[in-house]
Amino acid sequence: MRLVADKLTCERNGREIFRGLSFAVGEGEYLELRGANGAGKSTLLRLIAGLVPLTAGVLMMEGGDGDTPVAQQCHFAGHQEALKSALTVRENLEFWAHVLDGGAVDEALAAFSLDRLADEQATILSAGQRRRLALARLAIARRPVWLLDEPATALDAVHTEKLVGLATRHMATGGLVIAATHAEWGLVPSRTLHLGEAP
Fold first, then answer.
1. What's the N-to-C CA distance of the chain in angstroms?
2. What is the Cα–Cα distance from 100 to 141, expressed in whole angstroms?
3. Which of 79, 96, 180, 184 has its CA at a distance of 20 to 30 angstroms from the CA of residue 150?
4. pLDDT band for position 197 (50/70/90)?
């Protein structure tokens, strides 16, 4: 299985974000996106996730489920946590497990040390705890491609290490990871794509 992008061009609000962008990511690989603010890192992730339209080019999954759009084979973890504040930590994960046809909620809670907070409402969580809850969806999302935007934001060293471990296991089972980041966070990239540079 391989995610292939061929000469992607994206325009937003009349402004060209990037043009002629090509890359490929295979099973067990991590592609790291680098570039200055505004270079298009987040836009590229959102485009792959189906949240931003493609102006030109081709994005396809080779060897994946040919009947399923690329976006539906991805799980996107962006800056907005998409939590339901009135629900408990466990209820949030149960909701997403249903939406994503996902795995065990207890495993997702344990993945980011949320066991003790399981019955607390999301509205009382700290920024770091909210980030951990949002990332815990990765443990239940049965999607081969993970799209991570600044994945270590608001995480302490312990939970950054847990995230790296989770991503490593995902890749070991044939998963793909694409992440936009300004800083090293512990996962060693298979290759790096620098946005904002001439193709």
1. 25
2. 6
3. 96
4. low
- Reported as a single tens digit per residue, the pLDDT across 27-59 is 999 999 999 998 999 999 999 999 999 999 999
Confidence at 199, pLDDT banded by 50, 70, 90 = very low
The DSSP bridge pattern shows strands 56-62 and 74-77 to be: unpaired
How far is it, in rounded angstroms, from Cα 96 to Cα 70?
Answer: 19
184: left (phi over 0), alpha (psi -120 to 50) or beta: beta
The answer to whether 144 and 176 are in contact (CB under 8 A) is: yes
Torsional sign, CA 58, 59, 62, 67: negative
| Ordered structural domains, the chain, with CATH | 2-194 (3.40.50.300)
Which strand ranges, in their side-by-side order, compose the sheet holding 2-12? 15-26, 2-12, 56-62
Euclidean distance between CA atoms 148 and 179, whole angstroms: 4
